[in-house]
Amino acid sequence: MIRRIRRPQPLFLALAGAAIAVIGVACGDLTAVPASLPTLSDSGVVYAINGAPPGAPTALEMFSATLISADANFIFDVAFDIDSAGNVVVLPQHVVASSLAVTHSVALQVSDSSFDAITKAPKNGYRADTSVVTRPGKVVLVQSADANACSVSITGSTIVAKLVIVAVDPLTRKMNIRFTVDPNCGFLSFVPGVPKE
Question: Residue 50: inside a domain, yes or no?
Fold first, then answer.
């Protein structure tokens, strides 16, 4: 007995194609996943990691936008220090932790733009796991590949932040800091609210 294979009817194929096109136009990019968390902006005081009072905040944990102590748990992204010349030094986790304790890579770059003028993080130009020396008023852009934050994300594997040291007191080893974080993996916006891109 010979079996006949029925071919799909041209009308059926045309209707199916039209339906997919309508859904694609109505919903936008079928693979796009919208951001769900608002950008986080804050300011505060951090101390130089060398010479800080016990338990004082010396680091930034980006996903929660929290100033914390850079301790042996290594849950921070960047720590802060003041060098012998009084310059601010931003230290990625890899520089502070031994290679056995590092949990993720953090990349930095210094920007010539003002803090408020930077509304979106650049996609490239970062130096991974390398400290930067900066001064008050100079913006540092941070890209963190924290697997705890982005392990199940399909939109990207990094989160971004911008930070600026507003003032430094070398005697007390204290720095005033301002920062904004986009906690949505793969998104680059620093605009207030839930990012669109």
Answer: yes
Asked whether residue 193 is domain-assigned, the answer is no
CA separation, residue 40 to residues 21, 141, 195 (Å): 37, 15, 11
**First and final CA of the chain: distance in angstroms?**
59
Rg of the chain (C-alpha set): 23
Record the tokens describing residue 52, joined without a space.
């800080």
The number of distinct structural domains making up the chain is: 1
DSSP E strand boundaries for the chain: 40-47, 59-61, 66-68, 78-82, 88-92, 106-111, 127-128, 132-134, 139-144, 159-169, 174-182
**Cβ pair 183, 159 in contact under 8 A:** yes
161, 60 contact by CB (below 8 A): yes
> Rounded to two decimals, what is the model's pTM?
0.81
- Residue 104 is part of which domain span? 40-182
What percent of the chain has pLDDT above 90?
Answer: 68
Residue 175 resides in a domain: yes
3-class state of residue 139 by DSSP: strand
**Per-residue pLDDT at 3:** 55
Give DSSP secondary structure letters for 142-165.
Answer: EEE--HHHHTT-SS-S-EEEEEEE
169 in a structural domain: yes
